[in-house]
Amino acid sequence: MAEVSAEARIEAPAGKVWAQLMDFPSYGEWNATHTNFPNGGPESLETGATFTENMKLMGFPAEVLWTVEELESERALAIKGKGPMGVLVTTRYSLAPDGDATTVRIDGEFTGAAVSLMAGKLKDSATAALNESLRKLSGLVA
């Protein structure tokens, strides 16, 4: 298993940050691992909804079938996905209002036999991608 996380204070209210997170057509502008949504982004999100995303991590392309596990407007989005080679991926976005700013945290977890072979490198690559994503997200909403 490989666990990763990143956190940033973004100089924008939670509603504005949340709106950007939910704007799936613009995912490629800030999400460092996102390539595209082969079937288009999710029409609407609700617990149990599914969508497919093409991603790239450590230079390798991967298609992930995501299921929404938790959704609390302007607070939290948790998705769990199945990727290639039996890899399971969990991603959780948490927003905490802080005056006119918002603290955004992204937590991720990778599990599966293939992960154990490259856990250290995966953790470093994914952590760097999360930090880059938060930096780009901040630039879009601040």
Given the helix and strand composition, which structural class is it? alpha+beta
What name does the CATH topology carry? Alpha-D-Glucose-1,6-Bisphosphate, Chain A, domain 4
- Note the beta-strand portion: 35-45%
Rounded Rg: 14 Å
CATH superfamily: START domain
Question: How widely separated are the two ends?
Answer: 34 Å
- The gross shape turns out to be globular
- With strands numbered from the N-terminus, the spatial order across the biggest sheet is 1-7-6-5-4-3-2
Helix content: 25-40%
Mean of residue pLDDT?
94
CATH class: Alpha Beta
Q: What profile does the largest beta sheet have? A: 7 strands, antiparallel
Number of H- or I-type helical stretches: 4
* Chain oligomer state: single chain
Question: What's the total number of strands?
Answer: 7
CATH architecture: 2-Layer Sandwich
For the record, the count of structural domains works out to 1
N-to-C SSE string, H for helix and E for strand: EHHEEEEEEHH
Parts with pLDDT < 50 across at least 5 consecutive residues: none
Structure description:
With 142 residues, the chain is α+β, with helices and mostly antiparallel strands. It has one domain (2-141): START domain (Alpha-D-Glucose-1,6-Bisphosphate, Chain A, domain 4). It is built from 4 helices and 7 strands. It has helices at residues 14-21, 27-30, 113-117, 119-141; strands at residues 2-10, 34-36, 50-57, 60-72, 76-82, 88-98, 101-111. A 7-stranded antiparallel sheet has the order 1-7-6-5-4-3-2. α1 (14-21) crosses α4 (119-141). The N and C termini lie far apart (34 Å). 26% of the residues are buried. The model has no long low-confidence stretch (mean pLDDT 94).
